[in-house]
Amino acid sequence: MEVYSRKLTVKDFSFLEELVKHFEKLPGVGKKTALRYAYYVVEKMSIDSVNEFAKDLVTIKENIKRCNVCGMLTDSDTCDICSDNFRDKSKIIVVKDTKDVFALEKIKQYNGLYHVLNGLISPLDGIGPESVNIDSLESRCKNDSVKEVILATPFTPNGETTALFLERILDREDLVISRIGYGLPAGGDIEYTDELTLLRSLQNRQTLK
Questions:
Q1: What is the helix, strand, coil percentage profile of the chain, to 5?
Q2: What pTM was estimated for this model as a whole?
Q3: What is the SS3 assignment for 205?
Q4: Which of 10, 19, 154, 185 minimizes the number of CB atoms within 10 Å of its CB?
Q5: pLDDT by residue (tens digit) across 9-54?
Q6: Which of 181, 184, 191, 25 is nearest to 103 (CA)?
Q7: How does pLDDT run across 141-184, given as a tens digit for each residue?
Q8: End-to-end alpha-carbon separation of the chain, Å?
Q9: Cα torsion for 22, 26, 30, 34, to the nearest 10°?
């Protein structure tokens, strides 16, 4: 006798639907993975663990802010890097987001400061310079103590557009503007690049001005 077996779909777990929707909002999480996460929460996590998880989510969301100097995510008004008197304040690496800072810090070869744009200029998406953390970078670069700005935006169309814009507006006679070079593939993001490649990119940066 032939037995018909229907494959289960997400709709068959409608009681998890609302939780699944929340997990689907996370980057790289599709319906199947979201369902697996939701099932794990219900089946494997204790009510205490769920309450603790929810409490931590709310606490982090309420307390994490952007550094008032560089724009990096932090739990204080000024991040630890900007507050560190032993950092080389003559150099600033400009990156897209906080994840890029973490990646560059892992190589332990850079002791300067950072500036986090929290986005990239994207004309096609209606994102102009005013929507990115650029004004504060201009202000920082007016300080004569800053001698070099290293542009570390990704090698993507939006990353290149942003780098070119920054190169133009940061023009100062005694300010060196360089671009991370050899090692990073076209279209690559810093956060996904291995430490050796990042180190080579930093060491082989090219002076633009």
A1: 45, 15, 40
A2: 0.76
A3: coil
A4: 185
A5: 555 557 788 899 999 999 999 989 999 999 999 999 999 999 999 9
A6: 191
A7: 988 899 999 999 988 889 989 999 999 999 877 899 998 865 55
A8: 79
A9: -40
